Amino acid sequence: MKIRFLLLAALGVAAVHAEVKLPAIISDHMLLQQGVPTRIWGTAAPGETVTVSVPAEHLAVKTPSNGKWQVFLQPMKPGAPFDMTVGSVVIHDVLVGEVWVGSGQSNMEFPMARTMNSPQEVAEANYPQIRLFTVKKAVADEPSDDVTGSWSPCSPESVKNFSAVAYFFGREIHKTQHVPVGLIHTSWGGTPAQSWTETSFLKDDLALQSYLTNWRKALDNYPANKEKYDQQLAGWQEAVTAAKAAGKTPPNRPGPPPGPGHQNTPSGLYNAMIAPITPYTIRGALWYQGESNANANEAWLYRRLFTSMIESWRQAWGQGSFPFYFVQLANYRTNGWWPVLRESQNAALELRNTGEGLAIDVGNPTDIHPTNKQEVGHRLALVARSQTYGEQIEFSGPMFRELGVMGPQARLWFDHVGGGLQAKGGTLTGFEIAGADQKFVPAEAKIEGNVVVVTSPDVPEPMAVRYAWQDDPPVSLYNREGLPASSFRTDAWKDAKAAAH
User: Fold this and answer.
1) Is 271 exposed, middle or buried (0-12, 13-18, 19+ CB in 10 A)?
2) pLDDT in tens, 98-109
3) Which member of 147, 193, 301, 491 has the greatest number of CB atoms within 10 A?
């Protein structure tokens, strides 16, 4: 057994078992990240000596005056489950493999029990080498020390309420990389990205300070709004009673006003549901969110907010630019701002080690919660398999790169053409073209090699092209790997909200 003593060697203090308290995420059935030093941490009385033992290593550390200690285990390889001893605490059934965090709003939270073909998918989810951890929902004004949750081996019982997107991603990584996989799920439906962003990143960006200013105003107005809400609630209860007596459908319950402890508190979910797990060594993060920011006030700002959120996570974890892969918004018939939000999501690809799973063709026009989470998890897994694990595979649909104009023709070049461009259904649709008047009209489009040629008799001198620039667009451009092109526009004109169709 390899033995290392931290601090104790210099002090000449003998190792003794200390009464320690461990965070919830360091517990039975946990999965540690392979190939890198992994942090184990907790609290104990100042001056107490804490020992940490795994089969190939024994560590000891003296607890400093703040009562918080930590050690780093040497890089480990996947293998048989083992027990880890921390002081007098024995942690059973520990595995080593790949650890991913899945976060966001309701489409990340969407459980296996509701996904497409859920009875079969749940029944077949017997993967003891996939470990699941769900962070209980919480809000905090300051960073918390711990979360509520526990690890479970993946089984039909443990998976049914787990994030479907995270599970399908993890299952594919487990099968293709042949390693155990740990999935940490921490999400909350209906929440905006500012709730998941560390406070200083909002304070230090003039463009993002409005989130904090507006929230302070909401708190100032909360007492009066709460009084109005209580009156509305009383009226609603009376209406429910009357509706039931008349055999009618009861009205929807009114939503409470924003106030203390609300899940939309800027940084509130970061403090309670992200900060406490940032000491845990991970491979990367998955993100599915944006619906709550897709509006007139925030769709543009999201490109600043989203990149700031990613950077705040990376700073907190202290693991450099770890992989951060996200889902572009699926198709859904709504308010016209989703194309702008998708464009803002694409802007995050300028950050190092980011990637995007496209879902623009697997949504539901009338349901913001599409059930085909299998394909979403698969497309995220393709990104990881290529970008993180080095497989030589295409992981993205065509991404617009360059526009060239030849007379009446607008010619488009793309990255990620894979084995070549193709028109699903045989004909390209969803293209619009405009001239100097900036008025877009439907266009004809055809594939010539790896170029898309766009024309319209109404626009003899084209200047700009848009594709799939709607909330719920027709999607026709794919590569031969079956991955759809992202929506895009070649212009930077101010009026980018999608027109009603």
Assistant:
1) buried
2) 999 999 999 999
3) 193
* 194: Cβ contacts below 8 Å, ≥ 6 apart: 202, 208, 211, 264, 266, 267, 305, 309
Hey, where are the domains in the chain?
Answer: 399-489
SS3 2: strand
SS3 93: strand
C-alpha–C-alpha distance, residues 288 and 48, integer Å: 43
Q: What is the mean pLDDT of residues 322-351?
A: 98
3-state helix, strand, coil in the chain (%, to 5): 30, 25, 45
User: Coil, strand, or helix at residue 357?
Assistant: strand
How many Å is the Cα radius of gyration of the chain?
26
CA distance 208 to 187: 22
CB atoms within 10 A of CB 501: 11
Other beta carbons within 10 Å of 84: 21
Q: Hey, what amino acid is at 251?
A: P
| Confidence (pTM) | 0.94
- Determine the residue type at 403: L
Distance CA 272, CA 126 (A): 31
Q: In angstroms, rounded to a whole number, what is the distance separating the alpha carbons of residues 173 and 476?
A: 29
Q: CB under 8 Å to 297, separation ≥6 — which residues? A: none
What amino acid is encoded at 6 in this protein? L
Name the DSSP letter for residue 470. Answer: S
